[in-house]
Structures are given as structure tokens and as C-alpha cells.
């Protein structure tokens, strides 16, 4: 039996991880969970999975969970705040941590989990985007596996398996194109939040869905792929594939291309990550090739969807520039979701922040500087731009 903690158990990836545990026939055991304020959902998780540890980011929510446990005679250790996340990430008895919280909040507990020698099933993009060098170095030092949960990176890891990494020529990241694929800039002037949240293929959280609409999600995945697979940015290609059947591909030096195909169901890469080295039972519908009429591919429009271009630029600049990119994007997406800015202002704000904070890029790359710069970028967006 493999024992798990889930950071962000009530979000999209967290709830799908719970479904993987349900269908694992006892091979997976949930030991620790974290959430923000979703008290009722956490109580449901407690009733079904009986974890030993729970952490809530919100202190009042943690008190409510503690009251519930006392009234129902449940002996669960309750924590709160970032210290609680760090605790759930480094519990002695767990084998693997599923990091599915959204945003920079996931960085510190991921580092703590690595230092505690826990394997990481990584769904928190920001961790590698802003601190890929630190995280991968720590993983090597502590002999920890970083197992990607993203369907694209999970696909790449499967395509690379059993092959000499030196023979890799190119990584090909596929993208659905989001809800506005094929539109030109002028057509995006009056985009509403509700329209941007209608992803054509995937059911995801609000922030990542907006990132998919701007193609920033793919940009963040490019930076992730650079660190996960030690691949130069010039050897990472983004390919729009509207059917989302091919989850990603790798090309080798002899011209051979290996692709991973599967249903549009995040439980597949989650299951592969948490059961690494083994394949478990069927989690989703299989593909019927008789029913697939065609698979198509397009070049991404970097002029209309500037976020992808900005992500490549930030990744190539390195240092703390990805921190600036990510912090500005998180702040801008939050403003858009709260209807304070327009859709096309998201890349404008990111580009502005990359210019304003450019002088910070070569500061020492450490956790304190990353967290401080992220805070200052978000403060700048909030106070100077809106």
C-alpha cells in the first residue's frame, strides 16, 4: 500500500486524485489532506477516507474541522496556515505528496516534502516555473522523484521511458488552443469572464482555465518541461491539437516520433504518477479509433496570444524572470476573474511587469528572493496598474 498526502484536496486535481484512490482497490491510502476554506468538502473527505492529518489555510476553517472531529470522536491532528501545509507535505508515514494547490503557495511545502524525502506528484505549475533550478537540485540531492501530473508532461515522461535521453531531439507539447482558437486580436476585445471559462475539452479550475484561454498555461508548461526533462527551450515546440487526443510527443535524433494518446481525463496522468512504475486498472473510456475522423495540428498564433511568447522569453532569460512572469500573470488573471480588467490586458500587464522588474532578474536565486519578488510584483499590479 502506498500512502499519500494531497495538498489542495478539494480542487479539480485533488478531487480527481480522490477518485483514483477510490478505485485503487486498497493500493492507495489517504493519510493527509489540505484545503483553504472548504469545510464541508473536507468533512466529506474525512468521513469517506479517514485521514490522520488535516490542514486548512484559514484558521477559522481549521477550528470548524477541529470541532467536527471532537463532536464525532475522530482522532485527527488539525493544523492551519502555511505551517499546516508544510506539515501535511512532510508526514513521516507518507510515501508521496500530490501537490495540487494553485499558485505560489505550493512552493514552500513542495520544498519541505522533498527535504523529507517524499516523492512528488506535481500538479502545481508554479513550483517549477519560479524555482525549477532549486527544486530539481533538491530532488537530486534527496533522491526524490518529481512525477508530473500534467497530462502533457506525463505523456512526455512515458514517451521518454526506456530510451536514452541523449537521443532526444525535440519535445512537442500539444495544446487544445483553448476557447478562442482561431480568433484574431480584434475579436478578443470584449471577451467576458464567462466566455473564457468555457474550455472546449478539459474541466479545470478557474485560474488554469483562464491560463488556457490566453495560452499562458502552455507557456508555463514549456518552462516546466525545460526543468523536468533538462531540455533547451529551442528544442521545445508547442503544437495546437484541437482534439486533445495526443497529449504530447518526443522526437529523437533519428527522426522517430513517439506520441502518447489517451482520453481527455486527468485521472489518467494522476494515476500514472501516483502508481509510478506500475499501470493500474482502467480509469476512463478508451479511445475508439474507428470513431476518430481525424487528428489535426496548427501552429500557435503568438501575435494574438502573446502570453506564450512572453513565457518563452522569460524562460530563456532565466534567473528570477519566470518569477516575475508568474506573479504578474497570477495577479492579472485574478483581476480579470473579478472583472476589473479586460482579457487583452492580461499579457499587457505581464509584459509591463517584465520591463519594470527587469533589474531584479540576476539577484541570487533562492526561496526568500523568489517569495519576496513574487509579493512585490503582485503588489505593483494591484496598486499601480488598476
TrEMBL record:
EC number: 1.1.1.267
Entry annotated with the keyword DNA-binding: no
InterPro entries reported for this sequence: DXP_reductoisomerase, DXP_reductoisomerase_C, DXP_reductoisomerase_N, DXPR_C, DXPR_C_sf, NAD(P)-bd_dom_sf
Membrane-crossing residue ranges in chain numbering: none
First-level EC class: oxidoreductase
Organism listed in the record: Clostridium saccharobutylicum DSM 13864
Family from the record: Belongs to the DXR family.
Source lineage: Bacteria, Bacillati, Bacillota, Clostridia, Eubacteriales
Protein name: 1-deoxy-D-xylulose 5-phosphate reductoisomerase
Organism domain of life: Bacteria
Entry keyword annotation includes Cell membrane: no
Gene designation: dxr
